[in-house]
UniProtKB/TrEMBL annotation:
Organism this protein belongs to: Vibrio tetraodonis subsp. pristinus
Protein known as: MBL fold metallo-hydrolase
Keyword tags: Hydrolase, Signal
Domain of life assignment: Bacteria
Domain Metallo-beta-lactamase span(s) in chain numbering: 60-236
Secretion signal, residue range per the UniProt entry: 1-21
Keyword Hydrolase listed: yes
């Protein structure tokens, strides 16, 4: 009789666990096969009420899908110069089989360039300042005619609470980031890069605004504010499970770039850099294993034959 009581107690204790597992199964079917993404790779992170799908193309451009019980939220799309990646994202979302909306983290086209490849987007969201930029952008509306819905602070989207913020004058005029506290996930767009060359073309050290100082100070704040978060998702080269280490890595990169541009760190020949090409070459030398094209966009000619390059000197 005593043994029967023990068995019944074990069964009773197991029922909530089994029920939780069944609920999780109902929320999330098996994720689409890796082979769906012909143009890159996928990493899937599953929690009890959320699932993150990190899709990265072969150039490191990254789109993340936040899946909940009620829908799929696509965060950025990668560059439209790789339309196959956009088509693969669309196929992947179709296989998930839930309603789809999108978030664009900032105005650079490599973060919205494949929106026209995504079918049946319900809403395009962005933080309020970013939304204003996008709604006034001819380049953006050449890709999609949909208006961008502005968000600020906390918003419930597909059953998850998002908390939106923006930073002025860092990587670009307005960089947004948002947190999902219940999932311990932070989404930062291009404020952080994972082993990839930060885009610093818009740095303007000759005027009164020091974007790299603003950027570094922002990263110092983020790594403290979100130190207990489990994941940070970026626009280039995937994601990280260590926000503090990633922030320190990016701060190191940005501080060196700033020192080279301002003449506080010499080139290998002992002289100060006097032009953009010298700075870019030295950064490539110091960070030889980084990926992506972000740094090179500072060079003259990056955006056409008349492009003078970054205004650093």
């Amino acid at each position: 009789m005593q043994m029967l009581k023990v068995i019944l107690m074990v069964i009773a204790l197991a029922i909530p666990t089994l029920g939780h597992a069944a609920q999780k199964w109902q929320l999330f079917s098996p994720p689409p096969n890796q082979a769906t993404l012909n143009s890159g790779e996928v990493k899937v992170i599953t929690g009890d009420h959320y699932r993150f799908h990190v899709l990265k193309d072969k150039g490191g451009y990254t789109a993340t899908i936040i899946e909940s019980a009620l829908g799929s939220m696509l965060v950025d799309t990668g560059t439209g110069k790789n339309p196959q990646f956009g088509e693969d994202i669309n196929t992947y979302l179709t296989l998930i089989g839930k309603p789809v909306s999108a978030i664009v983290t900032h105005e650079h086209s490599d973060h919205y360039g494949n929106l026209d490849k995504i079918d049946n987007i319900e809403v395009i969201y962005a933080e309020a300042y970013v939304a204003a930029d996008l709604n006034q952008s001819g380049e953006f509306h050449a890709i999609t005619k949909m208006p961008v819905t502005a968000l600020k602070g906390k918003a419930s989207l597909y059953g998850l609470i998002y908390d939106f913020h923006t930073i002025d004058n860092a990587e670009t005029d307005h960089n947004s980031y948002f947190a999902i506290e219940s999932a311990k996930g932070l989404f930062v767009g291009d404020l952080l890069y994972v082993d990839a060359y930060n885009y610093i073309r818009e740095y303007t050290p000759l005027d009164d605004t020091d974007e790299l100082t603003n950027w570094i100070e922002t990263l110092q704040e983020l790594k403290l504010k979100y130190s207990e978060y489990d994941y940070v998702f970026v626009g280039h080269n995937g994601y990280s499970d260590n926000i503090q280490a990633l922030a320190d890595q990016n701060i190191h990169y940005l501080a060196i770039a700033q020192a080279l541009i301002k003449g506080k760190q010499p080139l290998p020949n002992g002289k100060k850099a006097t032009n953009v090409t010298e700075v870019v070459a030295e950064m490539f030398r110091l960070f030889p294993n980084y990926k992506g094209k972000g740094l090179g966009f500072a060079l003259p000619g990056s955006f056409g034959v008349q492009d003078p390059g970054a205004k650093w000197f």
